[in-house]
């Protein structure tokens, strides 16, 4: 199955999933990549730390607004990438058939991306480093 549409999911869609979305968009411009949150507050801006980190890579995430995960978003995606294993269950409750297209963002490292919200700066830095490394790990499956 060809991968054309990717959905990246975390809890609030203000930090990890939007950062991963923008990193993937820059790396794979031929794909349609979006993000959503399992319990996202609607229309909230991305976390300022993550916006600043993305800016160091010439990525402008200032226009990002959070959105809630919905069944149509799940159905529309060819690949769904989650930050933690515990994010799988809420997605599968919405659509059990999504199991075959649902993977950890850090799948090739068998690692999760812990939530940095309300933590020290070094946790954000570690999170962003992981997101960059994991975005690069999808090359063999996402390159045209």
Provide a descriptive summary of the structure in words.
There is one protein chain. The protein is 37% helix and 13% strand. The mean pLDDT is 96. The protein has a single domain (5-142), classed as 3-Layer(aba) Sandwich (Rossmann fold), CATH 3.40.50.2300. With 144 residues, the chain is α/β, with parallel strands linked by helices. It has a four-stranded parallel beta sheet. Strand 1 (5-10), helix 1 and strand 2 (32-37) form a beta-alpha-beta unit. The longest helix is centred in the last third of the chain and has 16 residues, at 121-136. It has helices at 16-27, 48-55, 71-76, 88-94, 121-136, 139-142, and strands spanning 5-10, 32-37, 79-82, 102-104. The protein contains six helices and four strands.
> Mean pLDDT, nearest integer?
96
Please, what is the CATH homologous superfamily?
Answer: Response regulator
| Total individual domains | 1
Rg result: 14 Å
Main sheet: strand order:
2-1-3-4
Number of helices: 6
List how many beta strands DSSP finds. Answer: 4
H/E series: EHEHHEHEHH
Strand content: 5-15%
CATH architecture grouping: 3-Layer(aba) Sandwich
Structural class: alpha/beta
CATH class: Alpha Beta
Per the CATH scheme, the topology name is Rossmann fold
Q: What's the main sheet like? A: 4 strands, parallel
Instruction: State the end-to-end CA separation.
Output: 14 Å
Specify the helix fraction band: 25-40%
């Amino acid at each position: 199955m060809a991968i054309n549409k990717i959905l990246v999911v975390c809890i609030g869609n203000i930090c990890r999933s939007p950062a991963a979305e923008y990193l993937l968009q820059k790396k794979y411009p031929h794909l349609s990549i979006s993000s959503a949150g399992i319990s996202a507050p609607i229309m909230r801006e991305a976390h300022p730390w993550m916006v600043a980190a993305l800016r160091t890579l010439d990525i402008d995430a200032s226009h990002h607004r959070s959105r809630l995960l919905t069944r149509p978003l799940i159905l529309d995606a060819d690949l769904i990438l989650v930050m933690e294993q515990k994010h799988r269950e809420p997605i599968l409750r919405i659509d059990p058939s999504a199991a075959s297209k649902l993977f950890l963002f850090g799948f090739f490292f068998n690692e999760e991306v812990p939530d940095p919200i309300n933590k020290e700066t070094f946790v954000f830095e570690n999170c962003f480093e992981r997101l960059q490394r994991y975005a690069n790990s999808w090359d063999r499956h996402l390159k045209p």
